Amino acid sequence: MKTLAEVESQVLEFSLEDQLQLLALLADNIRSKTAAKSPKRTFRRKLGGYEGKIWMAPDFDETPDCFAEYV
After folding, report:
1. Are the beta carbons of 27 and 19 closer than 8 angstroms?
2. Which end of the chain has the least Cβ crowding within 10 Å, N or C?
C-alpha cells in the first residue's frame, strides 16, 4: 500500500491536463456516492389520521388498585 506522499508525488508527475481529468473523475465518483446515499424523495405524513378513531379512558393516569402497593 502506498503512502499519501508517494501518491502525491506520482500525481504531481502527471501533466496538468491529466491532473484535471483525475480531479474530475474523483469529483464525479464522490458526487455519485453522496447522491446514492441521499433520499430521492421525501415522504411527509399527514397529521391527524387517527382522529376520532382512538379514545383514552378518563382514569388513564390513575394507578390501578392492584398496583397501589408498588407505587
Report:
1. no
2. N
Question: Rounded to an integer, what distance in angstroms lies between the CA atom of residue 58 and that of residue 67?
Answer: 18
DSSP collapsed to 3 states, the chain: CCCHHHHHHHHHHCCHHHHHHHHHHHHHHHHHHHHHHCCCCCCCCCCCCCCCCCCCCCCCCCCCHHHHHHC
What pLDDT digit, counting tens, does each position of 39-49 carry?
Answer: 667 778 888 88
* pLDDT score, position 16: 93
pTM of the model: 0.46
